């Protein structure tokens, strides 16, 4: 099997490092606008750089990994789909709802292709364990979830994420979309209504660096989402507190989880797992899962429809902020 990568920035390299661990899979070419990055990558790994996507697609890759800035994805997605190429697309699927509308007809027409969105945190051991406990009814029916995602904004992140014309938004687009996907995965239900607001810490940027949203799910669950991208050091945390009718689960990404009921408490620690495999092992698990789906022609663990829904939810959140009212997710 062979593949190509569009964009070899930080996240593109994480995908590359994950896929290179898989046997009988080869990277046949890549596209990168930054000549310094491209030349370094080409020299180090002996992989040809292409400047034209159509010439790269002549090599007939089995799939293409798209890690381009958010506003540069529509044309490559359409071109790849028209050439019957499967896609792994870094989140979010598109910059906004208008760009989503441009690619939807192509996705729907070529619906036999196997596309996935890189909601890579869904592959973490602690998230999968939490989902299993909930499906086994260990805490009963979920009633409320508190989702908190606080981190320092890494100065090494690409500058374009602060440009709304390129990124489409701030902490919601870059970080909190993962929280939204995780909550949908845990609840096994769609978000139908949102109410949100924000207040920037750093007034020097044109995108939000804090956001809070109330998310209402079709199955009745209510979740409070808080995301902060602070411009200074802080006690970063990504914590999900899930309250059911019989007990609760406290999930901490990259650490583990605790489950508590009136009759029992249990701690699941994944410190040894992360010490052994590293912080980004979930990229490898995602790569394994996607290759298996392509090989067996099965539905991927994260389907393209979930990426579509995520864009719609984000659009509703931004509308809620703008109009200062609850918005139904269409």
From TrEMBL:
It holds the Pfam family GFO_IDH_MocA. Residues 128-249 form the GFO/IDH/MocA-like oxidoreductase domain. GO terms for molecular function: nucleotide binding. Gene3D superfamilies: Dihydrodipicolinate Reductase, domain 2, NAD(P)-binding Rossmann-like Domain. Residues 1-115 form the Gfo/Idh/MocA-like oxidoreductase N-terminal domain. This is Gfo/Idh/MocA-like oxidoreductase N-terminal domain-containing protein.
């Amino acid at each position: 099997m062979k593949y190509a990568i569009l964009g070899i920035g930080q996240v593109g390299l994480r995908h590359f490092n994950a896929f290179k661990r898989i046997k009988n899979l080869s990277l046949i070419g890549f596209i990168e606008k930054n000549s310094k990055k491209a030349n370094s990558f080409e020299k180090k790994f002996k992989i040809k750089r292409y400047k034209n996507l159509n010439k790269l697609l002549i090599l007939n890759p089995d799939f293409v990994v798209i890690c381009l800035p958010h506003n540069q994805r529509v044309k490559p997605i359409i071109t790849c789909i028209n050439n019957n190429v499967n896609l792994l697309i870094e989140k979010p699927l598109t910059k906004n709802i208008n760009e989503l509308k441009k690619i939807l007809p192509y996705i729907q027409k070529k619906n036999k292709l196997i596309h996935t969105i890189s909601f890579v945190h869904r592959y973490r051991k602690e998230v999968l364990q939490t989902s299993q406990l909930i499906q086994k009814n260990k805490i009963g029916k979920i009633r409320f979830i508190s989702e908190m995602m606080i981190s320092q904004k890494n100065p090494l992140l690409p500058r374009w994420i602060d440009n709304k014309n390129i990124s489409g938004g701030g902490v919601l687009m870059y970080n909190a979309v993962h929280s939204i996907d995780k909550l949908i995965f845990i609840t096994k239900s769609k978000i139908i209504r949102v109410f949100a607001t924000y207040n920037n810490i750093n007034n020097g940027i044109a995108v939000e660096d804090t956001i809070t949203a109330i998310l209402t799910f079709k199955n009745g669950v209510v979740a409070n989402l808080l995301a902060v991208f602070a411009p200074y050091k802080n006690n970063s945390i990504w914590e999900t507190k899930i309250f059911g009718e019989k007990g609760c689960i406290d999930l901490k990404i990259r650490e583990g989880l605790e489950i508590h009921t009136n009759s029992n408490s249990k701690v699941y620690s994944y410190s040894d797992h992360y010490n052994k495999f590293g912080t980004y092992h979930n990229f490898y698990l995602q790569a394994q899962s996607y290759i298996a789906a392509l090989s067996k022609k099965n539905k991927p663990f994260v389907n393209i429809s979930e990426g579509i829904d995520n864009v719609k939810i984000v659009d509703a959140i931004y509308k809620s902020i703008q109009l200062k009212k609850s918005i139904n997710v269409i």
